[in-house]
Amino acid sequence: RRKGRLAEELVNSGHCELAASVRQKAETSSHRLHLHDLSQVPGCPERLSRKQKPGYVGTVLEAAAGEVIAEEAQYTPDHVAGPGTDVDPTQITFPGCICLKTPCLPGTCSCLRHGENYDDNSCLIDIGSEGKCAKPVFECNVLCQCSDHCRNRVVQQGLQFQLQVFKTDKKGWGLRTLEFIPKGRFVCEYAGEVLGYSEVQRRIQLQTIQDPNYIIAIREHVYNGQVIETFVDPSCIGNIGRFLNHSCEPNLLMIPVRIDSMVPKLALFAAKDILPEEELSYDYSGRFLNLMDSEDKERLDHGKIRKCCYCGAKSCAAFLPYDSSLYCPLEKPNIS
Questions:
Q1: What is the pLDDT of residues 84-98, one digit of tens each?
Q2: Distance CA 191, CA 237 (A)
Q3: 245-to-18, 143, 168, 270 alpha-carbon distances in Å
Q4: Roughly how many angstroms between the first and final C-alpha of the chain, as a whole number?
Q5: What is the dihedral of CA 305, 310, 315, 317, to 10 degrees?
Q6: I need a surface site. Which of 41, 110, 173, 297 has the fewest CB within 10 A?
Q7: Which residues pair with 127 in a beta bridge?
């Protein structure tokens, strides 16, 4: 019931803020990903050439020449329910619009009560420079009566650009584009298991400093200090978003986008024009400072938690972002 109240407030408030997103990745992840001769792996090209969304114009996800991705992780284009969560990401809970004979427009379409989300070129409108969105983003869903070609259907169309997984010098695997991507265009999702808070802490407590952490926490401020919090982990079940590295000057922004239910798609949009062969990256911290108590700071100063950042940006903070609330056995805050 509380989740329902928060959902209604988010829909009606017109305020959505990405408060913090935290993920750390080891310098290498050779224990999870291995290099092989592409020609020696039966069926490898077919396995790598998956479309993000079957039935839509997708893109080829391939490894750089001479490299192949042999993952332990199971591929999924969408979120799946993981341990500890009380929501099913695949459940359809939003009603559809009734725009059968007219285009979806603000004022008439229930999905656009806060205004349009995309322009005629499928570019996100009001893309914030600090990773914020001026309003919640809701796309038309499977129950909507509008066309599949409705302008308010972007993230659900899946990948539209050719991307490539490649081996970086110090950051393990990375993801780059083989095509020009205009500012504001949707690039990919960060999909995986949607977890409960206790399961997040359990998994993180089992990690060592050498282990990569793919868990991301999205906090959306709703009303009167209440927060909707979503945890996603693509370590075991996930999509190509798990290959994205951090940058202190990223070319992607993560925006929560809702389509069929209150569980948001963690959609990554181009924060600027991106050139071919350019590595794709986003800021793991969501560009918000993380507050730490004295004990956390002491542990950080001794280098027991934080990992070095190799993004190479002029404004590089030297270390990857860190959220102490996920690593320390704290009492769960008043969060839905």
A1: 998 899 999 999 999
A2: 8
A3: 18, 35, 10, 15
A4: 10
A5: 10
A6: 297
A7: 133
